[in-house]
Amino acid sequence: MATAAPIRAGWRLKQPSVIPGFGLTLGFTLTYFSLIILIPLIALMLRAAGIGPAGFWAAATDPRVLASLRTSFTTALIAASINVVFGTLIAWVLVRYRFPGRRVFDAIVDLPFALPTAVAGIALTAIYAPSGSIGALFAPLGIRIAYTPIGIVIAMVFIGLPFVVRTVQPILEEVSREIEEASATLGANRFQTITRVILPGLAPAILTGFALAFARAVGEYGSVIFIAGNIPFVSEIAPLLIVIRLEEFNYTGAAVIATVMLSISFLMLLFINLVQAWSRKRYGYGN
Amino acid sequence: MQVSVKNVRKEFDRFPALHDVSLDIVSGELIALLGPSGSGKTTLLRLIAGLEYPTSGAIYFGDEDASHKSVQERNVGFVFQHYALFRHMTILENVSFGLKVRPRETRPAAAEIRRKALELLDLVQLSGLEKRYPNQLSGGQRQRVALARALAIEPRVLLLDEPFGALDAQVRRELRKWLREIHDRTGHTTVFVTHDQEEALELSDRLCVMSQGRIEQVGTPDDVYDRPASPFVFGFIGESSELPATVENGEFWVDGRAIGVAATDQAPGKGKLYFRPHDVDLVEADAALAGVVAGHRRVGGTRRVELSVGGDHRKVELDLPFDHPAGEKTRLAFRPRRWRFFPEAV
Ligand SMILES: Nc1ncnc2c1ncn2[C@@H]1O[C@H](COP(=O)(O)OP(=O)(O)OP(=O)(O)O)[C@@H](O)[C@H]1O
Ligand SMILES: [Mg+2]
């Protein structure tokens, strides 16, 4: 008879699992993760670091670079916020209502995933350009959509929408009718039930959807460049500037911008993940 | 609060879940809705709560017709089988929710809400856990939170749908006793659904036995157990055996033999004789039911014997003292001491 092994404390954050194969799967995961993600990223950062701190700082704080980073991150934040509102709404409609064509509608939500981004960009530009069907409605009001940051936001909303819908939808499906009924029997009206019971319960999923939509929008290139107009200091996004630097054979300059983008994105995603972990620990759910 | 259900019918897409159900719930009583799965218990409870509306018929709270009132207006406490606690709220927030969502005019002050919620948590014996989240509690504790939450709104009726259904036997028994105590202390009119007859018999003042969308019998546990109104109730509540029998010359006959049991107050004719395993006497006589032991098992302090009776080997069950020597293939003769006879519908 083997005696029970003393519980090992220390580096292991979680209790050892009864499921075997921890070592093997961890090893595989780390190797795979390194090959696919870590090594390329490290190579990128090494390249950027090659010019030394002063050179890095100069390249990173170049006004055009700063402007493009600002454009990229603010438009991505705005787009992700818009997606959170409407994505949640769409998920709600898909889960809660039964209407003819619901399945088709449900399938259409995924189209931005599948469509080549350039196609999306060209289609959006055609519609939102001053001569396009929607752009023409706004042109008399003096509002230009295509070739401005508004156009960038629209392209980012388009490509980011499915992320929010698809993360919120399954969680919403799980919110049992009983929870809502419990709220109603306690006297809460519809509005109170939604704002105090359902939405807070969905918050972790919404946050995940936000993070994904945001990450996708920051990195988006294909659809944005068609609609953005790409005017330096106005509607030039950082990924485009990277491509421009590459075309100038300024590989280090491109790597610097990429590294800065990577760091900002990483910090934001890390923050969101920490919030998630905290909520999971507290409420025992979320993802 | 007295609640009257009057001739309620409920259809789901033309499927009748309840047919013409009428039930008077007396103010302050604890009444159990008991019945097999799909008999309409939950539907009836949800109709009372206002979570569902009747296809026809009416529901009265006192003298007031509540049929068209919304759930919010009915002010009922509802406890769900799977607790339905709000996971993102602490226990204290869960319990105070019903008071916090009241319109400003009727909402107590924040300090008062807190005091009341803590008092309820004390009542359900969860003092000290108010800062926890539902997922940090055991099932039994969660259900007690759900009850405290329902009580916080001072409901006119308390409705519980299989409140202990998801808990293990031990916890169930404890909570059962405890629910009875809470009821006696607070005096809320309480309706609870269960399909556990032991729970219903032990806990309720009256029980309402349902089957296939109809009420079969309403009565005290003694009434229902000792004087079942229908073969269904006899078979559903407690252990029972049945045999086809005929009444003739004021006696019961089974398989063409008189069994030595007087058919008091029974009209001659065919029907079914029901009796419980513990309501039989072993006899040494010819005029009796007789059969061969087909199997036996120990049930508590007695031995339950399965007897195969008559030419067509009908199985009946008898309780014998655990030290009775009867073994496999032993022949036993017995007479039901207490029985019910349900004549065949003509
Ligand atoms: N929303 C609904 N839509 C359609 N049919 C329903 C609905 N709710 C209940 N029913 C049907 O009504 C009948 C009674 O259901 P109900 O839930 O009241 O049974 P129950 O006695 O509570 O059963 P259980 O013990 O399994 O909970 C069942 O046949 C069920 O299929
Ligand atoms: Mg039910």
TrEMBL record, chain A:
Q: Which Pfam families match?
A: BPD_transp_1
Kindly state which keywords UniProt assigns to this record, in alphabetical order: Membrane, Sulfate transport, Transmembrane, Transmembrane helix, Transport
InterPro entries found in the cross-reference section:
CysT_permease, MetI-like, MetI-like_sf, Sulph_transpt2
Reading the lineage from the top rank, the first entry is Bacteria
UniProt GO MF annotations = ABC-type sulfate transporter activity
Specify the ABC transmembrane type-1 domain's residue ranges: 69-273
How the protein sits in the membrane? Multi-pass membrane protein
Q: Where in the cell is it found?
A: Cell membrane
The GO cellular component terms are:
plasma membrane
The principal localisation class reads: membrane
Transmembrane feature ranges: 21-46, 73-95, 107-129, 141-165, 197-218, 224-244, 256-278
Assembly and partners are described as: The complex is composed of two ATP-binding proteins (CysA), two transmembrane proteins (CysT and CysW) and a solute-binding protein (CysP).
> Which family does the record claim for this protein?
Belongs to the binding-protein-dependent transport system permease family. CysTW subfamily.
User: What does the UniProt function comment say about this protein?
Assistant: Part of the ABC transporter complex CysAWTP (TC 3.A.1.6.1) involved in sulfate/thiosulfate import. Probably responsible for the translocation of the substrate across the membrane. Part of the ABC transporter complex (TC 3.A.1.6.1) involved in sulfate/thiosulfate import.
The protein in question is named Sulfate transport system permease protein CysT
Organism per entry = Arsenicitalea aurantiaca
From TrEMBL, chain B:
Gene3D superfamilies from the UniProt entry: P-loop containing nucleotide triphosphate hydrolases
Which residue stretches, if any, does this entry annotate as coiled coil?
none
GO cellular-component term (any): ATP-binding cassette (ABC) transporter complex
Superkingdom per UniProt? Bacteria
Leader sequence residues: none
Keyword hit for Disulfide bond: no
Q: Pfam family example for this protein?
A: ABC_tran
Classification via SMART domains: AAA
Domain ABC transporter span(s) in chain numbering:
3-237
Any single GO molecular-function term of the entry would be: ATP hydrolysis activity
Keyword set for this entry? ATP-binding, Nucleotide-binding, Sulfate transport, Translocase, Transport
GO BP annotation list: quaternary ammonium group transport
| Family of this protein | Belongs to the ABC transporter superfamily.
Name of the protein described by the UniProt record: Sulfate/molybdate ABC transporter ATP-binding protein
Q: Which organism is it from?
A: Arsenicitalea aurantiaca
